[in-house]
Each structure stands twice: as structure tokens, then as C-alpha cells.
Amino acid sequence: MPPKYSEPFRRSDGEHYARTTVRSVRKTAETSVPLTPAIAERWSPRAFDAAAELTGPQLTALLEAARWAPSFGNTQPARYLAGRRGDRAFTLILEALNPGNQAWAFRASALLIGVMVTANEKGDIPYAEYGLGMASENLVLQAVELGLVAHQMAGFSAEAVRSSFGLPEHAVPRIAIAVGTLADASVLEDERRIQRELAPRHRLPLSEFAFGDGWGDPVFP
Ligand SMILES: Cc1cc2nc3c(=O)[nH]c(=O)nc-3n(C[C@H](O)[C@H](O)[C@H](O)COP(=O)(O)O)c2cc1C
């Protein structure tokens, strides 16, 4: 299915969450039944509006969403480093990204690093990476709920982050996240990148995803 062009996608219209008006590409998930809108509308764009800023309340909402994620035994292994465009933390995170990610992520309103804490006073934290993943998905879905977009990246140097931010050994940078406002794909300039931005999204069919009687037997025959 070709990408849909539509009126700006709006969710929360509270004054704190006002967003820049853009002609957005929607890449709504194709599902057999309706889903929670934040899940259906989430995708990972690279065309960010370089003029849009993230407000303090918006950043607070993203971090609150992540903070309230479940975790093994409530061990809460997730931590975040966060910078908004123009500040020191943003610059340090941008510098740590791989060149391919830097090429588009510099337009984001905020850049974050998700850090997993691998040990506490009782010893190693089980399922720490799972906990950081749950927290980060909460953050990303909250961004969509606010009318923003988010794009996670493994392409960055954890060592650069460790050194720039003075992380202790038991704090492991695991994911970078760009958050901002969706812009028209044309901001990417390069035709190949624009085509990638507009390409349809794909997933495994449900028949290959959820099994019933045995591995490979579709739960929905
Ligand atoms: C752990 C993880 C690492 C990723 N790393 C990158 C990355 O370094 N650069 C990038 O452009 N996208 C990255 N992505 C985005 C994925 O490519 C994207 O989520 C996937 O293609 C599915 O597309 P969708 O998010 O639009 O549904 C990453 C996503 C995850 C969850």
C-alpha cells in the first residue's frame, strides 16, 4: 500500500503539547483488527523538522512514560541521558551516533540515550535489557500520543557516550532515540533516502507470528 498523505495527525491538544503543523506521511500499521492509535501510528521516520522544539513538559511526559514501565521485581534498570537541540547533551549524543544516523538525526528536537543498569546493591539485575526495552517503547508510544515521532538507533558508539557522560561500569548505553516533529520527506534531499522514507512498512503475517498446537502451527488456522 502506498504511504498516505493526510491532514496533520493530532492527539493531545493540550497547550503544552501544541505541535508544528506539517504535511505528514502516515504509515499506519495494516492490522486485522483496530489497535490503540499510538501503536498503529508509530513508525520510525528520519525526516524531522529542524525548526521544531521539544517543550519541557513534553520531555517530562516522555521520561515519565518510561519511568512507569514494568521491570523484573521492580528493579527499574532503565536510565536516560537526554538533550534538546542546541544544548551540550544533544551535541555529545549526536557526536556519538554513526555517520549514517547523524545524517538525519541532527534535525531531531531531542536525542536520548537509553542506558541499562546491570547491577544494584543486591547484585546483577535480571532482564535488565528487557526492562530498558519496555521503558523505551513506553517513551516512544508517549511521543506518538503527543503528536511527535521517535526513531530508535543502535548505531552509535557506547564507548563515546560512556566517556562523554562519565558513566560507571554498571551503566551500559544500549539505544539512542531521536524525538521530534515529522517533516515532509523532501527535507532528506537525497532521492534514495526519500524513497526509503516513503516505502511501505512490512511485518510477518500473524500466521507466522503466533502459534497454537505446536511451533509453526498458526494460532489462527
Ligand atoms: C534496537 C533497534 C535499533 C535500531 N537501530 C537503528 C539505527 O541505528 N538506524 C536507523 O535508522 N534505524 C534503526 N532502528 C529502526 C528500525 O530500523 C525500525 O524500527 C524497523 O525498520 C521497523 O520500522 P518501524 O519502526 O517504522 O516500524 C532501530 C530499531 C531498534 C528497535
CATH class (first level) name: Alpha Beta
Heteromolecules bound: flavin mononucleotide
Distance between the termini: 25 Å
**Content-based structural category:** alpha+beta
Number of domains: 1
Description of the molecule:
By secondary structure, the protein is α+β, with helices and mostly antiparallel strands. It has one domain: NADH Oxidase, CATH 3.40.109. It is 30% helix and 18% strand. It is built from 7 helices and 8 strands. The protein has helices spanning 37-41, 56-67, 88-96, 99-105, 128-145, 158-165, 191-198; strands spanning 4-6, 24-26, 78-84, 110-117, 119-120, 123-124, 149-153, 171-180. It has a 4-stranded antiparallel sheet with strand order 3-4-8-7, with helices on both faces. Strands 1-2 form a two-stranded antiparallel ribbon. A two-stranded antiparallel ribbon has the order 5-6. α2 packs antiparallel against α5 and α3 (88-96) packs antiparallel against α6 (158-165). The two termini are 25 Å apart. The site of flavin mononucleotide has 9 residues, from β7.
